[in-house]
Each structure stands twice: as structure tokens, then as C-alpha cells.
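Researcher: Please translate sequence to C-alpha cells.
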Amino acid sequence: MYSSSLKGKNAWVTGSSRGIGRIVAEFLAECGANVAIHGRNATNLAQYGEGETLEAVAEEMAERFGVRIVPVCGNLGREEEAARAAATVRSKLGEPDILVCCAGGTNVEGVRDKSILEFESGYFRGIMDMNLYPSVFCCREIVPEMMRRENGSVVLIGSIAGCGGWKTGGALAAYPLAKSAIHEYARCLAAHTRHSGIRVNCVIPGNINTPRTRAVYGGDRAVPLPGLSPLEHVGKPEDIASLVHFLCSEGGRYISGQCIRVDGGEQLSPC
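Model: Translation complete:
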């Protein structure tokens, strides 16, 4: 169905060494795109058993899909590293036609028992460095050239945590604050780039079944619980990847400035 729909396109998927980002990168490669895959370092994908090194994953993907796959490492929450990573993508892959910003994460060490009024500024900045700034810095590196060419698609990956408050409360609220900022940044960037023909959207995953969620929560979280409807279960990374593909393809040519939840209807309040 999707075969060759992105043939000849260059895509950079940040945060794609594992989890949702990895499946997004594979999906785009399967559709014919050359893809730069990214991890904070070359081996963090091994933490949840998703491979040994980023370079080995790139080689395997290139052989499997018959496209160019370029591994890129760096902490994209730091301006200079984001600039270096973008330069590597350009030199080894070419100018990106597609940018998918999936890099992110959280750190709960030492803050579980603190209230939202107690977390330290350093912790808050760290969460922003991990979630908001990688998208901002990478867009700053890539989008101006897209605007010059008047062609390109950007998809930011947010989180349902950034919609309607944080159920657990406490200092962990730094994470949904960062994710809600991504949602609004996507809208602002879409408004800025609209007259250049650049599409910018945000995909907002709900609970998704990845090796990390299985390790953290235990078991296969994608299995519907007894008595619940077919939508009331944890989603698959492919649910996110297929929407990202659509938004980057010709089918999404008239869609920009949208924040789209993929959560089985878990949250129905506005973003």
C-alpha cells in the first residue's frame, strides 16, 4: 500500500535508535526514503534490547530496505551538537525533505515524592533539554533550507501527557509541561512556514507498547484487558509511524498546523 511512496526523499528521524522513533524510521525507509537515524549515543539502544550499536542497526536497515541509512549521534538538547548532527546528515545523506523530531524522554530520579511547587530549576531545565530543545534546535537547523526550496514536511512527536494535565501530579509535571510546549511550538512553526509551502504537524501518542514500556510496566501492554472495547488498550508504534508517513506523503499535502492524538480516544479534551 505504501511501497515507494517516499522514493528519493531524504528523512531525518531524531530519537530513532529505539522505541517509536525506530519504527517511524523503518516505516519511512520501507516506503523508499533514505533515512538518517539518530541516538544520543551509539549504544543506548541496547538498554532495552533493541540492538547493539546504531551503526549495526543502520547497516541492517539499509540491507533490508534497499535505501541509504546514515547513523548520527549527539545530544540534540545542546545547540552545538544539534548543529553538528545536522551537518553530518547533510554531508552523508543530503538535505532533508522530511524532519521527524522524536527525541525525548524523562528522568524521575529524586523527584517522585516532590510536589509541583518543589522541583528544582535544574531538573526542569533538564527535562526541557531532553524534550523541547531538541525539536527547536533541529528545526532551526533544517527548516530554513526547506523554506528556501519551498518544499518539506516536519512532524514533531508530542505526548498525551501534555494534554489536559498530569494525573500523577508532583514534580513529574515538568514532563507534560515540556510536551505541551512542543504541541504549541508545532502550531507556531506551522504559521511561520505556511507561506513557504512547508507543512508542520504534531503527532501526540498515547500509551504505546515499546520495549521500554514493557520493561517499565511489565508484560505485553498491547493486549486489551477483559471487558474493554478494542480501542481501550496500549497502542503499537506502527500506529504512530503510519500517521507520520501519511503527513509526510502526498496524501498529507493539505494538512499543516495540526496536533493529532493517537490514543484510542483516551483523552477527548482539547490539546
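Researcher: Any highlights?
Model: The longest strand covers residues 199-205.
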